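Q: How would the structure tokens look for this protein?
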Amino acid sequence: MQSDATGSTLIASCLAEAMAWRQPVFSALLAMSLLPAAASAAAALKLQIVQRPPYLMVAANGDVSGIAVQPTVAAFKKAGIAVEWQAVPALRQLQRLKDNREKVCSVGWYKTREREQFAKFTHAVSQDSPWAGLANIAFKPPPNLTVKAMLADSQITVLLKNGYVYGDYLDIQIAGMKAQHMETTGDMQQVFKMIARGRAQITFAPVDEIRYYLDAGAISRADTKVIEFPEMPAGYKRYLMCSKQVDDQTIAQFNAALSTP
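A: Here is the predicted structure in token form.
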């Protein structure tokens, strides 16, 4: 999720997320009545979620949904494992896993070598669509532009989300880019709105995420456009990322329930 790219770096702070960091953790119990009595009696496994439509969504009443959430809920229910959902900012989620003081998992995260040093991973719960660029409408790239060629242009400014994993392919391209870049701690809707306002020319996200916000009317089609790159790899898989306090048996039970039709 981060880049050591050259070029001028402007930091755009997001007040909304900063305030969310200070808010107490919001907890919502998953319909325990649907679980077997033995599971309900056991200590519930804490599941961390952050608002990231369309993969991870938390309603005002605490209900959870999304592409990565639905198979997760179904697998825990089938395995008879009691869980407690908690809405927690992404950076705090990582810190809890690194501290390893409790049995807790984060839902819908990418697996990286760095994260495997402090966390356990389940089997994949979902897979993203391929990544694309969301660009300001004024950006006029040549036909069949590649990511590598675009990021070699020092006249282009790329907007990046601070602490964000863009996947192996994009992370490598970003690390060596000559393009200018600016960073923000804002959520993805705020990132997309910054592109619409012309704060930078382009940012990257999975196609299904970009289309979710376009279809919802959260960002203007009149001010933005989607650019798909011919060399972009398949979308990345999402996993449960757990503290090492979570025992292997629990993970094995979850995996079995996830893979069994």
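DSSP finds ten helices and 15 strands in the chain.

The first strand starts at residue 9 and ends at 12.

Upvote if useful.
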